Description:
The complex is a heterotrimer. Helix content of chain A is about 80%, strand content about 0%. By secondary structure, chain A is mostly helical. In chain C, α3 packs across α4, α6 (about 160-170) packs parallel to α7 and α10 crosses α11. In chain C, the strands form two sheets. An eight-stranded mixed sheet of chain C has the order 6-7-8-3-9-10-12-11, sandwiched between helices. Chain C has a four-stranded antiparallel sheet with strand order 2-1-4-5, with helices on one face.
Amino acid sequence: MARYIVTRIVYMVITLFIIASITFFLMKLMPGTPLSAADRLPEAQQQIVLEQYGLDKPVPLQYVDYMLGLVQGDLGVSFQFDNRDVSSILENRIGPSLQLGIQSLIIGSFLGAILGLIAAIFHNGILDFSSTLLAVIGTSIPSFIFAGLLQYYLGVQWQVLPVATWGTFAHTIMPTIALLIFPMAICARFMRTEMLEVLNKDYIMTARAKGVKWSSVILKHGLRNALIPLITVLGPLAVSLLTGTLVIEQIFAVPGIGEQFVTAVTTNDYPMIMGTTLFFSFLFVLIILIIDILYGIIDPRIRLDGGK
Amino acid sequence: MQHENDKEKKYNKELFSPADVNEEETEKINRQSRTFWQDAFRALRKNVAAMISLAALVLITLLAIFGPMMNEYTPREQDLSRSNLPPKAPVLENIGFLNMDGQETYVFEHISAEQAQMNAESRFGEGDYVEYETLSEGDGSVGSAQVQASVDTYAEAGVEENFWFGTDRLGRDQWTRTWDGTRVSLYIALIATLLDLFIGVAYGGISGFFGGRTDNILQRILEILSGIPNLVILILMIVVLDPGILSISLAIAITGWIGMSRIVRGEILKLKNEEFVLASQTLGLSNSKVITRHLVPNTLGLIIINTMFTIPNAIFFEAFLSFIGLGLQAPNASLGVLIDNGFDALQTTPHVLIFPAVVLSVLMIAFNILADGMRDAFDPKMRD
Amino acid sequence: MSNETILEVKNLSVSFKTANGEVQAVRDISFSVGKGETLAIVGESGSGKSVTTKALMGLLPAPKGYIKNGNILYGDEDFAKLSDKQMTKYRGKDFAMIFQDPMTSLNPTMKVGTQVMEGLRMHRGMNKEEAKTEAVRLLELVRIPDAKARMDQYPHQFSGGMRQRVVIAIALACDPKVLIADEPTTALDVTIQAQILDIMKDIQEEFETSIIFITHDLGVVANVADRVAVMYAGKIVEIGAVDELFYNPKHPYTWGLLGSMPTVDQREEELFAIPGTPPDLLHPPKGDAFAPRNRYALKIDYEEQPPMFQVSETHYAATWLLHENSPDVQPPASVQQRIEEMDGKWEAGQ
């Protein structure tokens, strides 16, 4: 297990290094100066600005500087926001994004697991059909359409929840719902298939032959075996929420990283784009790693064999 | 237990002579045999939801191809004189709840009916395109009197022709734009499918078939590649190129096929160790024969299923990017762009949002249901 | 072996609903099991032997599989009439089951000890400590070394033979009156097979358990059974005491089975193979289902199903060859020779 984790971390570092390098050089390939506003400044002042950002040095030196900064968690300085550190902006903005992401992942996967469980227990019944239909709709209809419907009805027409922006818990409800539908639907589908498969296993027959009640068979023998593989989808789901927050934060005007990111792209704030990109990549590989390790810890077959 | 209870029953002695046993007959298999694919397609045809989805997809594809040609407007043609017209279509205009008659109703409230009427007239004036109706006379309190104005928006704007899906703020025909946008989604679906089939299957197949060092190197590359979120790749693309269909296609080209290659590799690795493949290799079947006779037919189902799941993901990816403004840019139409435009005027002109949103949703649902159906039909494990 | 009957199955029919129609997996079978007796049910795959045991346990895969007709009489109860809920009272307590594949019949995410203790706590009302002590005792009974330490391990840490011992320990937890073993040794190595069979024999002697032993291995049958029922195409075609069946088989299918059994001192003569394939139970044939594969088939075999003809007090066979009008047909020479060989070995062994 330990060896497995170390290997994974090495890959994680290599991946991040490659992403950082690609990001850096692509930025350098960009035509013109990144300081669009600075174009209109007199020559001398432009020089000052370039020096200020370290853009006058040769590219390899800039690269080394950039990489050294990264190791210390320095993601550069934003062009747009009064020369503030990218990392400090991200720090300020991460709260709402995290809250939305965690809320929707936990509630979504929980509801999804229950839906899938119900569908599997009442296999081929009306409950199975409706929850499967719900799951198909949930995986199919893009979250931004859901978000629009929610905003229009709950916010504008019936005025039960604040239309947008951030502040109280009530503000988090609509974005959370819009975000959780996808993980919920995925979990429901996954759970249903997994549970149906588990219920066909021989050990379920053994448990029933022991005289265990049907409800206990499902809860004690079925559920645990079906839930363990569910952990594997949580990783990709968490990642999908990362991208999901981009739209949802924009629609509901949530001051999170996603909204910031979209703004940065549309205003060509390169350090901000690079910083956020790297931050996303870091989260992405970290989540995948954590989920893999978690899986190893929970499944006794992997835990005790010392890794696959 | 059933004893010799019918002993007294008389049987014809002739019956106790040996029957002629036909040796050939005994080896005959009783049930007619069907191939795996016949079985699979039979199962698929019996799946009502999947068949409806297939029909919906065919219809949408046809509309995407021919829809924009069905009237004289072009996707970018603007005309402010006909902006924000609600949908109006012949025949359908007579079906009340569809709301496709080009009529709009507004309710004006005031303290008295006269004053409400005055407000309404100052908005729409006099003419045969507008009818006023007093809903409530009012009792003098604020908002108690109501006057409803029914406006024929087409007559008001002096437009003779029909706009089946209405027009947007700039007076562009939404029918043409919606189907033009659908083309983008279908194009993305095609790109994703081709990449899946060519790069994904080839990469996974090579990796799995040759194994050893080749596999090791290819998998290490994949490990790093899959560590990069596709959004990040897209961002890098649009920083270098411009946001648009090319950037999206390239982003899909770089990472979109990874899932497929993993599945194919896993399946090939599994098949390679199956006895029937080992047997034919021992018997001297060449690599290419092994691939075409055994490996391809046995992975085909899995490949088709996986492609079907790739498609809605790719369509979503484009719509999502265009929606947040990182994909196609105005004045180009894509369903994501149209939905984004629709959001801006959700309260006044909901039709701008509804049509592309419905088309996108139906497209996604149909692909997903069809994919589900194919998985149930083509994956022997899934069969009950 | 006493004569007290503990379980009686009467005219049991089990069907499965499938997309193509009703598959009649078990068709009107009757048999009984005495106290402390071992009844072996033999037959090829698809003959309905496993389905029969699932029906006895009330474990048919609902709603596809169902008991169409008949009775399963145990004490005052008819299991064929009980609901799944009512059956839980008997399952694991009066009736226990050992499954074929020890690699898959244990819950991979539950400790072995817990799986053994589950039945004890449920049916015998033991508290955790009592159940633990008892579970260790059971694991020792099935000769699992170091049982106490093994309690906290997971199934994947056990070998196949050890897992099957655990499965047996689970089945024995509540001193069942009837133990149903569905090919319990098929998936195991021959040496392990012998050990498992030994354990089962010892337990039967100690507790007077009745065992229904499903197998397609006639060698195992000779080793463990008191009586044998031969199933073909969902029907019992011959049933009798083990030596009656081995030394005086009456049904051509039983001849085929005996003839196709390989022996160690196999000489140059070929194995006797039964030609053809079993019938499709979606549309069972009109007469004797075995007729098309039977080289001794009579014309009447294609017209009418043979009834059970009594051979001796305990021996019955369903073949028209036993009818007074039928020609005198003897088992083929190779089978007769086989029977003589076995006889000789048997005598030498006794």
